[in-house]
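Fig. S4 source data, part A: sequence.
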Amino acid sequence: MSTSVSKILTVAKAQVGVKATDIKKCKYNTWFYGASVSGYGYDWCETFVQWVFSQCGASSLLYEKTANCGAQARAFYNRGRLRTSGYLPGDVVFFHWSNDKSSYVPSVYSCDHVGIIEKVNGDGTITTIEGNTGSSSNGEVMRRVRSLSVVSCAGRPQYVGSYSDDTTDDTVRIFYRVRVDGKWLKEVDSLSSYAGLTGRAITDIAIKPSKGRVRYRVHLKGGKWLPYVTGYNISDHENGYAGDKKLIDAVEVYYETPAEIVNKRGYLKAKYRVSPIGGSYYDWQYDEEKTGGQDGYAGLFGKTIDRFQITLSK
């Protein structure tokens, strides 16, 4: 179930002032662990966030039930919903107290603490609501003002009735599937998951938007780019999918936005990424762009891929 930013913030704000007792003993930990617990090993900033979303019937928006901030950030990252800039109210924000690199998410600092953004201020700070914070050794729920300099990253739940930088309002969705070990895997809808199997090489890809059209192609490892295709039919080797039952190391996609979408939302782009076998995702690629460090395609020549994700974005 989804929910709105306002509902999440209403529930979170109502908890301001709640304090833990007896070394981290609090209702959020009791809810999470199913029993009353206490001890210095039971930090509860993450369980507070988990509790808030649960009260709104929206636990699924966090993608994983965990008491570990790093694991929570990784869950957002794996769904393509982790941000390192452009923060907004409702974002689940992760803080770093050192400059150590995260062992859960590539290219960000460690995630040592978590809260929910209530307001983005215009002076390089954000106002948050956090659990397990304050001067008390046990912690409490507080409204805090934090400098962006201590923000590692933030997860963006797929809210309804507010902002969205992806096509989460169902104006247009994109479906895709891949072939692995000679078998086509099940279809994936936008960023609901990913196409592929970790550690298993992708050989073919099929992509279809609900509106408009995509032009796409794949690059064979140790070979060349295959011709562009526009169809979505795994029985049509000519134009139904991209691939030739051989290892793929790069993918290129371009979304042709139909007039009805342009008039309503403006032009959209294919936003996609791949991961090398056994590795983390490469950066997002937008259409065939070559600005801002983009290559015009997702992947790295010579590195076979095992996961593929795509959505549509402004």
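Fig. S4 source data, part B ends here. The first strand starts at residue 82 and ends at 83.
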